[in-house]
Amino acid sequence: MSLLVDVFEARSDNYGYLVHDTATRCTAAIDAPEFDAIQTALDRRGWTLTDVFITHHHTDHVEAIAPLKRAYGVTVTGPQQEADKIKGMDVLVSNGDAVRLGETRFDVIATPGHTLGHVVFYDAANGHLFAADALFSLGVGRMLEGTAGPMWEGLKAIRNLPDETLVYCGHEYTVSNAKFALSVDPNNELLRARAAEVDRLRERGAFTIPVTLGQEKEINPFLRADTLEMAKAMGLDGSNAADVFAALRKAKDVS
């Protein structure tokens, strides 16, 4: 089986994704940020939309559900915990469930924190993780609904995936994330190299994703909340990882 991924811009700073199962020609949009952007990507590729996989209830990820259903008759799959907040879902999923797009299997991983019911979709066979607003390159989503403990546990579940996994996040926030990461981890040479690469990419209008999860494990401060370096950076030597994570997120919120 093989999965093709098309990356495109949507709204002001969203990333949009089409995933295409080559064996069956089934195509899904990961989230539904903007109808026109999705339709343009479909037309460019010559693909027909069959499914939409939703990660969480925020407007910039669900706004196009209704017009996509009208235009393509798609099946919409999304988080059971947010069923009361997302109109138009046909299939409800929770942590540990799996969904199929043709011959491609996506595992559902709960990542509460940005929203309480946030989920991500992981294609193990092809090594793709669609992380939406749970994990960004060099950052994580704002903790808008959840608390630090469960959000950290969700991120650890992501961190346990193979290093070669390609991470596709929900927004282009990498430049600002890099500045914050450098402020708390200035001596990390791998981080400094990535920050320079990000600047070069954005200067020419290129995307900063996908990025390998292995790289993020080395340079994303939020994935390293259980390290001595991050505890010291937050002045929390000896504290548990969830407390360090909470301090990092609070510091980023005001940076």
From TrEMBL:
Coiled coil: none
Pfam families named among the record's database cross-references: HAGH_C (PF16123), Lactamase_B (PF00753)
Keyword vocabulary terms for this entry: Hydrolase, Metal-binding, Zinc
Entry keyword annotation includes Hydrolase: yes
EC number assigned by the record: 3.1.2.6
NCBIfam families cross-referenced by the UniProt entry: GSH_gloB
Name assigned to this protein: Hydroxyacylglutathione hydrolase
Organism of provenance: Devosia limi DSM 17137
